[in-house]
Design a protein that fits this description.
Layout lengths: L8 H12 L2 H13 L3 H29 L3 H8 L5 H34 L6 H4 L2 H7 L3 H18 L2 H28 L5 H8 L8 H14 L6 H6 L8 H29 L14 H8 L3 H35 L3 H21 L8 E2 L2 E2 H28 L2 H9 L5 H31 L1
Antiparallel strand pairs: 1-2
Helix pairs in contact: 1-9, 1-13, 1-15, 2-11, 2-13, 3-4, 3-11, 3-13, 3-17, 3-18, 3-19, 4-5, 5-8, 5-15, 5-16, 5-17, 8-9, 8-15, 8-16, 9-13, 9-15, 10-13, 11-19, 14-15, 15-16, 17-19
The protein binds tryptophan (TRP).
The site of tryptophan (TRP) has 17 residues, from helix 1, helix 2, helix 5, helix 11 and helix 15.
Length: 445
């Protein structure tokens, strides 16, 4: 069977930006900025994106496009019959585990979107306790989680061009406009200037070792790195694309979305006197309060949760595609069988993760709930190691001329040929060593 490719460069970029821009940008980034001292965190984050994430993104691009296969097949083709294929297997396993808990939060955003449409965020007295009631109730979150997973499956089922690429091409510009409009609206509210100051004036006194670890973790998570996602999408890229500039554009777009989302959230949080260091509950607890108090808030809430929903969907789509590409190419499953098979298993895992906020909240492994275990395993162990190994593979295992050919399109890209030694140095030494240091300190701090 002929392997599908992205139809256009724009379509590919939007799909990759769609993968990168997700709950990480709208939910995680703003609350991390809130907790870790505003602009100081942003500066560190940008530093990590350029020093560590970008070399890794380029490495994943090289592996994906050089092999034109799924994550497992890619390692197996470029280093036949070596243990590297287990690294490939790891890169298929981690997105699978991530979907299992990511779709729980996706389900919450779908639920909040429905609530917003029903105008439930007009009275603050009704909002208090709503979030904890919802996530701990036994069945309601399962329904929206299942629906969210179903939407993901339908898009992936339609294939690379007519599903993933088309969805990204429509949804990403829409997402951008919605977030931009909310940001402008929020910034112009009276009292918002405090928040804007907080966002753009660095407070380095809040920076600790933990801030560094959080900034790196975010730089990874936000760009969907270390677990086969970008690798798989890159395998659908055209040979003529410029890997360097595509990677840079994706990193910039992701950063832009994260900062825009912070502009949409933090100034309002200040204007209405709620605590920016609220943590993970920020968008589901604090924000509805803000919508209740804000002019036209009920309307803004609808668009806001629509944005969260789109962002989350384009990300789970990218994770599922990693697994589907593997099942189709390595096990000769039909796309349909692979998608519905994954749906069934993921739904069951999602039920466990979702219930760990309610009926199963006392089931813990090493003091962590099921949801936290999935998150910990994926974000703190599998992703960093997947990332280090991808860099080591490109920097040390692949033949240098092959990497050069891939990065410079056989020497035809002049600028890339010039800066190639620098990129290679980062992939070979800086990124793996840096990621290793921060990962280890994560366990020590
Ligand atoms: N990058 C996405 C976000 O910011 C999440 C995501 C998508 C992801 N694919 C991934 C995270 C693969 C890790 C690995 O929300």
């Amino acid at each position: 069977m002929e392997r599908e490719n992205f139809n256009s460069r724009l379509g590919m970029l939007l799909a990759m930006v769609g993968s990168a821009v997700g709950l990480g940008n709208i939910w995680r980034f703003p609350y991390l900025v809130g907790v870790h001292g505003g602009a100081a965190f942003i500066i560190l984050y940008v530093l990590f994106v350029f020093l560590l994430s970008l070399p890794l993104l380029i490495s994943e691009f090289v592996i994906g496009r050089a092999s034109r296969l799924n994550a497992y097949g890619a390692y197996d083709k470029l280093a036949p019959n070596t243990i590297w294929r287990y690294v490939g297997f790891l890169s298929v396993l981690s997105p699978f585990l991530i979907i299992a808990y990511y779709d729980v939060v996706g389900g919450w955003s779908l639920h909040y979107f429905f609530e917003a449409c029903a105008m439930s965020f007009s009275q603050s007295s009704e909002i208090a306790g709503m979030f904890s009631n919802h996530i701990s109730s036994p069945f309601a979150p399962l329904f929206t989680m299942g629906l969210f997973l179903l939407m993901t499956c339908v898009v992936v089922l339609m294939g690379v061009q007519s599903g993933i690429e088309r969805f990204g091409k429509i949804m990403m510009p829409l997402l951008f406009l919605v977030i931009l409009a909310i940001a402008i609206w929020v910034i112009t509210l009276p009292g918002a200037s405090e928040g804007v100051k907080y966002l753009f004036k660095p407070d380095f006194s809040k920076v600790t070792g933990k801030t560094l670890v959080a900034a790196m973790g975010q730089a990874f998570f936000s760009l969907s790195l270390g677990c086969g996602t970008m690798l798989t999408y890159a395998s659908y890229a055209k040979k003529s694309d410029n890997i360097g500039s595509s990677s840079l554009q994706i990193a910039f777009a992701d950063l832009l979305f994260a900062i825009l989302a912070s502009c949409a959230i933090l100034p309002g949080v200040f204007a209405f006197g709620v605590d920016p260091g609220e943590g993970p509950g920020l968008i589901f607890e604090t924000l509805p309060m803000m919508f209740a108090a804000m002019p036209l808030g009920s309307l803004v809430a609808i668009f806001f949760f629509l944005a969260v929903l789109i962002a989350a969907l384009t990300s789970t789509i990218s994770m599922l595609e990693v697994v589907i590409a593997y099942l189709v190419e390595e096990h000769h499953a039909s796309r349909k069988a692979a998608v519905w098979g994954c749906f069934s298993v993921l739904f069951l895992l999602g039920v466990l993760c979702s219930m760990s906020f309610g009926p199963l909240k006392d089931v813990t492994i090493l003091g962590k709930t099921i949801f936290d275990c999935f998150d910990f395993l994926a974000a703190n162990i599998l992703m960093p190691f997947g990332g280090i190994l991808a860099c080591v593979f490109v920097g040390w295992k692949m033949k240098k001329p092959d990497v050069y050919a891939e990065l410079t399109n056989e020497g035809s890209l002049r600028f890339m040929s010039k800066i190639y030694p620098l990129i290679y140095f980062f992939i070979r030494y800086v990124a793996p060593a840096g990621i290793l240091c921060v990962t280890i300190s994560n366990f020590l701090l």
